[in-house]
Amino acid sequence: MSARPEIAGARRVVVKVGSSSLTTLPGGLDEARLSALVDVLGGVRAGGREVVLVSSGAIAAGLAPLGMQGRPRDLATAQAAASVGQLRLVQTYADAFARHQVTVGQVLLTADDLTRRSHYRNAHRTVERLLALGVLPIVNENDTVATEEIRFGDNDRLAALVAHVAQAEALLLLSDVDGVYDGDPRSGPAQLIDTVRSAADLAAVTLGSARRNGVGTGGMATKVEAAMIAAHAGVPVVVTSTAQAAAALAGERVGTLFAVAGRRPGARQFWLRYASRPRGRLHLDEGAVRAVRERNASLLAAGITGATGEFLADDPVELVGPDGTVVARGLVAYDARELPALFGRKTGELDPEYRREVVHRDEMVLVGRRIVG
């Protein structure tokens, strides 16, 4: 029996690989590294398991053909590099997987594709159909059109969202680091953390922040954040190096395992918590906060003291208490222009067309975070 049966027994896995594992400066795409990873994933496919690959590397792959010595700092040049590099990246993958008789399909996403509910459902259907056809989906952020306002920022979080979209049974986050350490192994003795079961296990750990030197944009902090999202959504995660991918997928005790920390939520609940982008805020009085938080009640107009933002009915909004804490996130039943006339009024005082809940409890998830700034 494997040391990690939840990983070894996963029939559908999402594997994320970063730019630093696939590319070098100034050479760009390293085909030998890419082929080595493909050989591992080709073996996994031959064993009857399904794989979704989330791959960074488009911008980095475009640097050498364009004669650039480093990652562009301005958005337009980065998008241009991605346009050149994405074609080369996917073609290299297609050729490498063809040696294993595996057909690949490209899925390009922006954050907007997952923050919009209808696009989220479309992404699920596309990935599901590709897998049903025996195709290995290769997912990447659509860097050619993504703007700073709507981009994921790194593909670790994208991979966590894709793991839920694809209904995966395991997620593997690969980089050039063996796993999560309790300190910086480059500056002194540090111990590899074998298993994380809750955020408390990392309370005393200082994680590296996102880096933007070289060809990568991620860091261990982003991987841990992504791993916690997936683990809380019922998907076990291993964070390890690309060199240990085969061992990790076989369930060997390598890297750091993030154990499942909750039941897998429904697609709508997961989308609301992790993928939706709030279009505004509803400000609640203390009674409404208690009703929502303690009694799992719907939000009624009587408990609302104000609203900010321009939103339409069925848009996601944040529910904020008097102390500035975001209590919940949910889908609002009214447009922003309709709500002011309803604030503080009991349901029986309203015209019949306005007596429905402002946010129904079935369209709401509890959050509990403090607004900064």
Automatic annotation (TrEMBL):
Annotated residues for binding of substrate: S56, D143, N155
Superkingdom, taxonomy of origin: Bacteria
Keyword ATP-binding in record: yes
Catalytic activity: L-glutamate + ATP = L-glutamyl 5-phosphate + ADP
Class of enzymatic activity (EC top level): transferase
InterPro entries: AceGlu_kinase-like_sf, Asp/Glu/Uridylate_kinase, G5K_ProB, Glu/AcGlu_kinase, Glu_5kinase, Glu_5kinase/COase_Synthase, Glutamate_5-kinase_CS, PUA
Family, as annotated: Belongs to the glutamate 5-kinase family.
NCBIfam families: proB (TIGR01027)
PANTHER family: GLUTAMATE 5-KINASE (PTHR43654), ISOPENTENYL PHOSPHATE KINASE (PTHR43654:SF1)
Protein name: Glutamate 5-kinase
Gene name of this polypeptide: proB
